[in-house]
TrEMBL record:
It comes from Clostridium paridis. Residues 33-213 form the FAD-binding PCMH-type domain. GO terms for molecular function: FAD binding; UDP-N-acetylmuramate dehydrogenase activity. It catalyses: UDP-N-acetyl-alpha-D-muramate + NADP(+) = UDP-N-acetyl-3-O-(1-carboxyvinyl)-alpha-D-glucosamine + NADPH + H(+). It is found in: Cytoplasm. GO terms for biological process: cell division; cell wall organization; peptidoglycan biosynthetic process; regulation of cell shape. This is UDP-N-acetylenolpyruvoylglucosamine reductase. InterPro entries: FAD-bd_PCMH, FAD-bd_PCMH-like_sf, FAD-bd_PCMH_sub1, FAD-bd_PCMH_sub2, MurB, MurB_C, MurB_C_sf, Oxid_FAD_bind_N. The lineage of its organism: Bacteria, Bacillati, Bacillota, Clostridia, Eubacteriales. Its EC number is 1.3.1.98.
Amino acid sequence: MNQYHNLLSSLEKILDKSDIEIDAPMSEHIYFKVGGPVDFLVSPRKKEQVAEIVKLCSLEKIPYYIIGNGSNLLVKDGGIRGVVIKLTDLKDIRMENNLIYADCGALLKDVSKLALDNSLTGFEFACGIPGSVGGAVFMNAGAYDGEISNVIKWAEIIDNNFNIIKLNKEDLKLGYRSSIVMEEGNVVLGACFELANGDKDKIEARVNELTSRREEKQPLEYPSAGSTFKRPEGYFAGKLIQDSGLKGFSIGGAAVSEKHSGFIINKDKATAQDIIDVIHHVQKTVKEKFGVELHTEVRILGEDK
């Protein structure tokens, strides 16, 4: 923290003091409910503030990390050195004809609800994804045969020169859980989605169907970060894990879910290290049994305790 003694005064020139938290426990900001403290947690309320903070940290060589709703993150027990920029206060959503614009901190489920209310189809797949728009664009989030690349028109980002620019769908280079934004380490500030006019009853029926499937098959009663692993080409991660005999496998308070083997859960006051140990054991076992490498979909940040 000592090396950042001038950082607080610099941040206070950009943000209100109430939007800066020192030594914030990251366990309170991610779905897994684990993780040590971050030196500075900042919650900007304007896009221009985000750009200023990113520029400040970059020029001063201070590490910074962007988070949204914390639904796809694992923070290690030693916490994070530097700055975490939390974007959940940027959450406006507006609609014009069949276009919906949403700020980076807006929740996908709220975008899906607005689409449903206005009989727009195409966003049903995201009704149960707990993340925010920024993270969804960053990783081209998807579920139930739909993904962001199917509906996005353009995204607003902070480029490498700290300018706020728009990238159209083609320029975003969206692939399976990947994007140019992820490759370049840019920050997503918002996105515009182009949907189609549809039958409200059919849209609602699809949303209800997906919600029921999610509640029935996913361990929503425990803290987790959703699907822990990316889908290996030609396989399903959950089935590989189950066929490896790992359903219910646990270390400390972390476990492979008995309900869905693709989920690692915080079953009983797990530490981040417990979760990481389970991840590594699963990866090692699946590789030994099937010769398939599992790569984490969950982003892991921070340092060991």
